[in-house]
Amino acid sequence: MKFCKKCIMPDTRPHISFDKDGVCIACQNNEKKKSVDWDLRYKELEKLCDKYRRKENGVYDCIIAVSGGKDSHYQVHVMKEQMGMNPLLITVEDFFTMTEAGKHNIQNISEAFGCNIISFKPNRRAAKVISRYMFEKYGRPLWYVDRLLYTVPLYYAAALNIPLLVYGENVSYEYGGINDIETYSAREQVFNGVAPDVDLEELVEAGVPRDELTYLEAPSRVLLEKLDPIYMSYFLEWNSVRNYEFAKRRGFKDLTHEWDRTNHIENFNQIDSYGYLLNAWMKFPKYGHAYATDYGARWVRYGLLTREEAVKLAEERDHAVDPKIIEDFCNFTGMTIEEFYNALDKLYNKDLFEVNALGQWRLKQENIEERRNPHW
Ligand SMILES: [Zn+2]
Fold it and tell me: Based on the structure, what is the number of domains in the chain?
């Protein structure tokens, strides 16, 4: 493994690129942001909103895809209170046990900003089969819900004839990935690799009737061309900590006094449910990094941690998946804990990991050393 010299992101993150000095694209883009004329970008957003504002009472001007999290709070504030738009919010629920904070926040966003929310509750029977299948075969336990998170708002926007569809950050540009170019348009987001195409016949073979796989296919080009999906992170300088500070003042709750997650370094990102968190943690066995690296790297870019501090947090926490996450995933899919760990053993990347004398999967020492002192 090779690691970014500025933050701690490894080159195993899918599709991330580095410059010749060993600086990752996320750090490069973070530098670029410092020379962006954000006043001008704000005006561009106003212009775009003018184009789609319908000026009729009771008619929606845009759709915002929300989770109820801190970023959603900020997005709704910008569109409704700053841009004066009438937004309809769409959320795709997952099927896991919700935290108290998660239950509170999705209600809060409606109360704090006075918005209607369409809540899409996916088919639980299909979800159980697909989540287990995708976990065991690909190490992608939440593919089903992540896929719907991307596709459902697009299908609804088209059906309701509301072309302006607002997403938060461009994950590829902010953190590295497929299509890491700077663009306001989120039209290609569904192809960014986070929840990639899967041959639906596979899922039929796994036991889900074909007609229960609605919305899992990417929308057609014809449908996408009718819409104008945007990333808000293009128009406003995106910072998850700043969004959190904003959301808190409008009633957003974090996990303080509720759940101290063993593999996280903060308590306000992705806090809605327990089992859902397995998805991002699965980057650890596959690519050798998880939450502590992701947020540690981000905090380094934000100037909140030194690189050394982030390395230490990654060493202490990345591997330590919280037992509540596993329990909730197993409860939902019907797997036993033993079946879960047996499947997990098969998913560890043997090039990056080895089992130590205590029976623990750990990054090979050479990778740990490389993270402390990157060589390029
Ligand atoms: Zn970096």
Answer: 2
